[in-house]
Input
Amino acid sequence: DARVTQTPRHKVTEMGQEVTMRCQPILGHNTVFWYRQTMMQGLELLAYFRNRAPLDDSGMPKDRFSAEMPDATLATLKIQPSEPRDSAVYFCASDKRGPITGELFFGEGSRLTVL
Amino acid sequence: KNEVEQSPQNLTAQEGEFITINCSYSVGISALHWLQQHPGGGIVSLFMLSSGKKKHGRLIATINIQEKHSSLHITASHPRDSAVYICAVRLIETSGSRLTFGEGTQLTVNP
Output
């Protein structure tokens, strides 16, 4: 059963610490998205990649956030230094783009709490 | 004004009732998604639509491109349908990759 896998599922950290979240997209999917969900803002797009190349990271605070795809099976989202306002659930999603765009699949999310 | 508006924001129903959740959007889209999120849980894509109607079990999704409107229907609702339902659209103007989300509809189905 193909699924998007995210780690960690939960993370509690102190302000100022580095946080790295990882995502394994579904094999064969060429587009990977990072979303953040908060009560106040709902779901927001942070960044997305196609064929490992970053296409849009305009939703991401550049001073502390960075997103990469070191290879086709791994996407990372890093926050350094973390702040309490970064507390949210971070979702990774993937789909396959081409002549026909496939369904979008979400991971279970990484719930981050920054104290 | 949000580009994607859902109604109602909250909906409480009795088990067995027919439920409709609406989504209106104000821009050109290439596709519309209906997503389901259970409390504390992940997000599941229920449907992706670009025209017409799709059915999966007790769920039916329709879209009217001319009217910029979509509906999600649940027939014979069940307490396990209780979740947040989110409408999301792919905007044509951004090459169809960026999703714009509605605020979600919190559905509670009582036994």
Remarks:
- The longest strand of chain A covers residues 42-50.
- Chain A has a mean pLDDT of 91.
